[in-house]
């Protein structure tokens, strides 16, 4: 058994005209829902290019802040390479490390030797279903002058992430197969409306 914590996930996307039908179906099968507006900043190691040149994948660090809750702090997290499709053909299973940061996550990341690579805002809805969180959002670009988000165009694709709400360990009590089954259940519920699939990120 591995000491890693994992995230199990499926991904999908759809056009705005399907929003109402998809919203209705997800709401029907979720315990709760709330608006979501998050800022995400992606950092890469300052020597990322050198790492790539030597054939290794640099580990990216992500900082996320929920803007609908003014008091919420930053969460820093990092994903490692997803497990191979042979091991987990139906869902993306990737080692996942996360930590809450009190204060300035951005300075913290640079103190770890990371530099900012990109940032996006995500606006939409977040649903809870058992051990899963379902995020449904449009990406907003950032105004270079004000650094504030620019509302997404009506035609912007909606993205959906169905994933385990917190990192899980693969143990006898909580085998990864339970989480895989949970995301596959959502895949089945959305069949015909939304194609949820494994993704190698």
Automatic annotation (TrEMBL):
Pfam families: Med18
Broad class of where this protein is predominantly found: nucleus
Subcellular location: Nucleus
GO cellular component: core mediator complex; mediator complex
GO biological process, one term: regulation of transcription by RNA polymerase II
Subunit and interaction comment: Component of the Mediator complex.
Record protein name field: Mediator of RNA polymerase II transcription subunit 18
Organism, scientific name: Serpula lacrymans var. lacrymans (strain S7.3)
């Amino acid at each position: 058994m591995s000491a890693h914590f994992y995230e199990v996930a499926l991904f999908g996307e759809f056009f705005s005209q399907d929003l109402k039908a998809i919203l209705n179906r997800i709401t029907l099968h979720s315990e709760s829902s709330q608006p979501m507006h998050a800022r995400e900043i992606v950092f890469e190691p300052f020597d990322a290019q050198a790492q790539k040149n030597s054939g290794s994948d640099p580990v990216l660090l992500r900082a996320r802040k929920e803007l609908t809750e003014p008091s919420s702090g930053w969460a820093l997290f990092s994903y490692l390479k997803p497990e191979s499709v042979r091991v987990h053909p139906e869902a993306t299973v990737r080692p996942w490390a996360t930590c809450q940061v009190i204060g300035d996550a951005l300075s913290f990341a640079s103190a770890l030797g990371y530099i900012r690579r990109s940032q996006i805002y995500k606006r939409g809805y977040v649903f809870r279903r058992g051990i899963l969180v379902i995020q449904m959002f449009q990406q907003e670009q950032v105004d270079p002058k004000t650094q504030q988000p620019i509302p997404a165009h009506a035609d912007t694709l909606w993205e959906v992430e169905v994933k385990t709400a917190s990192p899980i360990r693969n143990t006898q009590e909580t085998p990864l197969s339970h989480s895989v089954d949970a995301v596959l259940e959502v895949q089945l519920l959305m069949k015909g409306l939304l194609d949820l699939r494994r993704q190698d990120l």
